[in-house]
Amino acid sequence: MNEKYLEEAEIAYTINTVMEEAQRCLLCHDAPCSKACPAKTDPAKFIRSVRFRNFKGAAETIRENNAMGSICALVCPTEKYCQLGCSRCGIDKPIDIAGIQRFVTDFEQQLDMKILKKGEPNGKHIAIVGSGPAGLQAAASLLQKGYAVTIYEQAEKPGGYLRYGIPAYRLPDVIVDYEIDRIVELGANILCGAKVGQETSLSELKENFDAVLIAVGASEGKMLEMFADNPYTETAVDFLARVRDNQGDISLPNSALVIGGGDVAMDAATTLKVLGVESVTDVAYETFSEFLASKQELAGAQAKGVTIIDGYLPSKVSDKQVTFKHRHNQNELTITADLIILAVGQKVNAEELALPIEHNEVTFEGYQTSDPQVFVAGDIAKGDKTVVWAVQKGKEAAAEIDAMLGGKAND
């Protein structure tokens, strides 16, 4: 076990400091922060409750809109959503909405509040394929409406990318377990080690369930052809899963090269530094003005001492040595590292599910497929690929399933 890897990166608010931050809120009548939240968590309402020390009310506001509230408080790129809409941006700096949300959900956990309630059984049973944030949120929404829910998860533990992709210092296992346990308490039946398309077919699910929601994510890392047989190369997805499986207790060299400019690349590079790798260099295709990673993730990597080089793409590789060419001029650079990590995108593995997929998402708009009994959500559905958007997709897909089935038992 590596204690540094398991140590949380952010320090939580105390009751005094969270009150100070909440007092900065302008209490906007038509709050732009609430309009900017994809999951409709309503920051304006729960911050107002915090200002009046109604922490229970704040927790209820969060949970009624977002079953992944504790997780989103830690990993949501709020700078792109609610905080971008904050009215204080024109005065000084936006309200730390994520920090306040974390205080409230920590309070909820300490009091073991049971906000979400299981609905009166309606006799209908839904199968969900995938236990990432979209599948878990959809399960919570359906359970509250009285549906029975069975979740099929191919991994050994539920959680999807929450469990196997995001580093533990950003999202501890205890928080993932807490969120999942609450959904199990609502009545969700989670079957792990169950890959739909192999042991169980989609046709069998359709025969045994009233509707099927496919909420699989882009869980496999892409491998550039020139690196395919390189023994020193690993995808960022595999690396982050390996680190998390071993709680950070893995052997690493003194130098590492990360290729990519998104949040996953920043997670991999920062994780390497947290685990004690002396020299970590990230080379990104994007220039800094085009960077895909959030400002917070980029700043976190730089603060840990990651060297970041922008605007280059790999042109050739020989064992530990990679040569890059600049996108806009004739410059070249060569970097030698003992470990090469590719963070150049991820792909969906859903060949057995017979879905029309292009560029890792379905080709149609909305959630219902051409088969009225089958729905999609999460990364595989069109739209942003963040946790908070997965939550919203899960909610909307659940609402469409309920609209189709009418919430009533078969005659």
From TrEMBL:
The keyword Metal-binding does not apply. It catalyses: 5,6-dihydrouracil + NAD(+) = uracil + NADH + H(+); 5,6-dihydrothymine + NAD(+) = thymine + NADH + H(+). Its EC number is 1.3.1.1. It is an enzyme of class 1 (oxidoreductase). Pfam families: Fer4_20 (PF14691), Pyr_redox_2 (PF07992). This is dihydrouracil dehydrogenase (NAD(+)). The keyword Cell division does not apply. It comes from Vagococcus humatus. InterPro entries: DPD_II (IPR028261), FAD/NAD-bd_sf (IPR036188), FAD/NAD-binding_dom (IPR023753), Helical_ferredxn (IPR009051).
